[in-house]
Write a structure and sequence with these properties.
There is one protein chain. The protein is mainly beta. It has seven helices and 45 strands. About 5% of the residues lie in helices and about 60% in strands. The protein has a 22-stranded antiparallel beta barrel. Strands 9-14-15-12-13 form a five-stranded mixed beta sheet. Strands 1, 4, 7 and 8 form a four-stranded mixed beta sheet that branches. The longest helix is centred in the N-terminal third of the chain and has 18 residues.
Length: about 800
């Protein structure tokens, strides 16, 4: 009886024993001289659990009893794996051998936040990118990260897409590729349509929210995307990827790589083609790209040449859908036709189209066409264990145009004489025009890193870049012949921009648990706009700007798996080309300034990891749309004295058991302009009226962005993920009017992936992405303008509907 009681008691305690956690601890050092490696990574294979070593190379993590594979890695050293049976506390020391070659990660280290950085960031790994890459543009691949909202003109994620981080649009998100600026120098936007399928050549992405660390290019007013291209595979490979799905979306990708040849050389290549009809009428895209990379890997140096290019032909769908068409308001559509003077064909198109798929353009070649070639020469050198350098020379050549049919255009608007036919002067004609942009962008970036002491690290970096842009227009056809031939330009404008920056970073660890940093950047800009604009306005604008952007912060380590941090940063940003061109005569738009306060807590355990941060972003002279119009009716942005964004963000992952894992993030914010003056044209009096508002919401800034994902992995090679995202309502202007807003939306997707292999094939992956499985009808973007007529205010609201339920199926074969 006594033995039976003992057995029963043991059986009752066995689940508790399985739940008990044991400690794994030890030291990671360099094999050759036993020097401690601070910041080395210790991870559990096929799990989110893990930690990093402290300044003495010590690590500690806790885990339930079981069998695990530990992965130990550090930049510049060969990684180790060790399988352990965890039944009690273990003390395990590891010695890492210096790598036979310098790792590619050194290329981006100077502009990246690290584990102990007092910055708010999210790392997206190569495997995460691959799992979500079905051919949609890069913004859609990182859509599930905190505070991110994406949109697509054609409604399905292919073609022209946009991204906002913390409510800031793409022109305020700094994008670098291997530390080289990608944002357009004049518009400051990032056009991912010019980089089709670039995600297939990306190793990882770091998304920094807020000001972030010093980097090259335009100032980060919402966040930064720091993209690192693919590192070489150790072994030769060939890979074929095909995706096909709704709206005749088809992606074909071929990748090849030599692996390391003689442990010194590697060559990689990719060729891609994507086509899609788009969700909206005529929202088609044809995108092509290639990526070539060759590298020499030495023990202490790395030389890499990247050449990549993208071409796009996209039917224009950037006008959106009028509100009356979207709501199927018949009388509203008739009023819209009358107000805007639509001809019979355009009126019929409006009245007879599918309300969510309507496209106002019907001319067969109403397309956007652009070609962009990139050349990057990257070099890194490890002079000694304490001193290293990385730098790059780069050149980008872009050229392209958009073509459009224009009805009854005045010859005088094109600086052309009125033709005389049969003795009568002709004032207007239908015509087809092209507006061109040709540009060259080139420069150098660099960074020196010096580990002065074991607890003191210094970085000196910067860059110098020049942009030379040509803006011009052509009339390629006119119903009534003019004096201008097809190749002549009816306007010529130029934009020249020189951008210099230098930054210094200091990281100091006065104690094992405390890390302090200072990051100081000077940026100087010379910007000249000359020639003639497309509205025949003469341009002679010159500006010289000098910015000082300091950042300071501290991180305190609570234990090997958790820390708290706080930072304060100041960022300055110049206006874009349109702001300069539309500025009131003899004045220049003021530069914007941002004061960014960030504080957070990060924790990493064997079964879960989480980050919680709060922020306050306080703007001085932020540029916003006020309703004021230029002389051709376009919206003008103006400086507002005071505005702010304050919020809280949560990002976490929890492994429930070997079958289930939960990923979730939330971004809650308050985004306000303290005092906002709206300008609206009164066509009854032909005068502009002004309305003043207090504490209004900043446009396109949702107060809540929530994401959750449940991953079910019944076997190692198969996974199903249910994804759910909610974006709260957004106002389309800064008046906080309920009549001019985007409704909140909640969208659910399902992603499946199955990996297997057969003889002669390393891996086969079959994937399925089912978007918007509940067929939610929603609009992710829009715009509005208004005026007063006949004593009443009229608002012209336009929306960009996104696709209902749609599918993408992929097959990836790796040899």
């Amino acid at each position: 009886m006594k033995k039976l009681l003992i057995v029963v008691f043991a059986a009752m305690l066995s689940p508790l024993c399985l739940l008990a956690q044991f400690k794994i601890s030890g030291k990671v050092s360099e094999k050759t001289n036993n020097t401690a490696l601070s910041g080395a990574s210790i991870r559990l294979k096929n799990s989110n659990g893990g930690t990093n070593t402290n300044s003495a190379g010590i690590y500690e993590l806790k885990q339930k009893a079981g069998t695990y594979t530990l992965m130990i890695s550090f930049v510049g050293y060969e990684p180790l794996e060790r399988t352990i049976e965890l039944k009690q506390d273990l003390n395990l020391d590891f010695s890492l051998k210096p790598s036979a070659y310098l790792a590619d990660e050194v290329i981006v280290m100077a502009t990246r936040a690290a584990e102990k950085s007092a910055s708010t960031y999210k790392n997206v790994s190569k495997s995460e990118i691959a799992a979500n890459n079905f051919g949609q543009d890069l913004p859609f691949i990182i859509n599930n990260t905190p505070g991110v909202v994406v949109t697509s003109d054609a409604g399905a994620g292919v073609g022209y897409t946009g991204i906002r981080i913390r409510g800031s649009d793409g022109s305020r998100v700094n994008v670098t590729v291997n530390g080289i600026p990608y944002n357009d120098s004049e518009s400051q936007g990032s056009f991912f349509v010019n980089m089709p399928d670039f995600a297939s050549s990306v190793e990882n992405i770091q998304i920094q929210r807020g000001v972030g660390t010093s980097t090259n290019g335009a100032g980060a007013f919402g966040g930064s995307l720091n993209i690192q291209t693919s590192a070489p595979s150790l072994d030769p490979y060939a890979e074929v990827n095909t995706s096909y799905g709704s709206f005749n979306t088809l992606k074909n990708t071929v990748k090849i790589g030599t692996g390391l040849i003689d442990n010194k050389f590697s060559f990689d290549g990719r060729l891609s083609r994507i086509q899609s009809d788009g969700f909206v009428d005529r929202g088609a895209s044809l995108l092509k790209s290639y990526f070539l990379s060759g590298a020499y890997h030495g023990k202490t140096d790395l030389l890499r040449l990247n050449v990549f290019s993208g071409t796009e032909r996209t039917y224009q769908s950037w006008n959106g859908v009028p509100e009356s068409r979207l709501r199927n308001d018949q009388q509203g559509m008739l009023d819209y036709i009358s107000r805007n003077g639509l001809n019979e064909a355009d009126a019929a198109n409006l009245l007879n189209s599918d309300g969510r798929k309507y496209n106002s353009f019907t001319y067969k070649d109403q397309t956007d066409n652009y070609w962009q070639d990139h050349y990057q020469l990257l070099y890194a050198k490890q002079f000694s264990p304490r001193f290293s350098f990385n730098g790059a020379l780069h050149y980008t050549y872009g050229r392209g145009y958009y073509e459009e049919f224009k009805n009854l255009q005045k010859f005088s608007d094109y600086a052309l004489p009125n033709p005389v036919i049969n003795g009568s002067e002709v004032l207007k004609s239908d015509l087809i025009r092209r507006r061109w942009l040709n540009n060259d962008f080139y420069g150098v970036t660099y960074a020196f890193n010096y580990k002065a002491l074991d607890n003191l690290n210094l970085t000196l970096g910067g860059g110098y870049n020049e942009y030379r842009g040509k803006h011009y227009g052509q009339i390629i056809w006119s119903q009534v012949a003019s004096s201008l031939d097809n190749s002549a330009h009816y306007y010529d404008g130029r934009g020249h921009k020189d951008d210099f920056n230098i930054f210094g970073k200091i990281t100091f660890n006065p104690a094992d648990q405390l890390s302090l940093f200072a990051d100081l950047q000077y940026r100087g800009i010379k910007y000249d706009i000359t020639g003639k604009d497309n509205d025949q306005k003469p341009l002679d604008i010159h500006d010289r700007l000098h910015f000082f952007n300091p950042k300071v912060g501290a991180t305190y380590t609570l234990d090997p798996g958790s820390n708290i941090y706080a930072s304060m940063s100041i960022a300055n940003k110049e206006a874009n080309r349109t702001d300069y061109v539309d500025a009131v005569k003899n004045t220049l738009p003021q530069a914007e300034r941002l004061y960014d306060l960030e504080a957070g807590y990060r924790i990493q355990r064997s079964a879960f990891n989480a980050g919680l941060n709060v922020y306050g972003m306080f703007y001085k002279d932020q540029l916003v749309v006020t309703g004021k119009l230029n002389d051709v009716g376009g919206n003008i942005r103006q400086n507002v004295p005071d505005s702010y964004r304050i919020g809280i963000e949560l990002d976490g992952s929890y492994t429930l058991n070997r079958f289930f894992m939960i990923n979730a993030n939330a971004a809650l914010s308050r985004n306000k302009i303290k005092e906002f003056s709206e300008y609206i044209m009164n066509y009854d009096s032909e005068l502009e009226e002004m309305n003043t508002y207090k504490n209004t919401n900043i446009s396109f800034s949702p107060s809540a962005v929530l994401f959750g994902e449940l991953v079910f992995k019944p076997v190692k090679s198969f996974a199903v993920a249910l994804q759910s995202k909610y974006v709260s309502k957004q106002y389309m202007d800064n008046t906080q009017s309920e009549e001019r807003k985007l409704n909140g939306y909640w969208v659910n997707n399902v992603r499946l992936g199955y990996d297997f292999s057969i003889k002669g094939v390393k891996n086969i992956n079959v994937g399925l992405l089912a978007n918007n499985i509940l067929n939610k009808k929603y609009q992710s973007n829009g715009y509005t303008y208004g005026y007063i007529s006949d004593g009443s205010r009229l608002s012209e609201n336009f929306y960009f509907p996104q696709a209902g339920t749609n599918f993408l199926l992929s097959l990836n074969v790796r040899f």
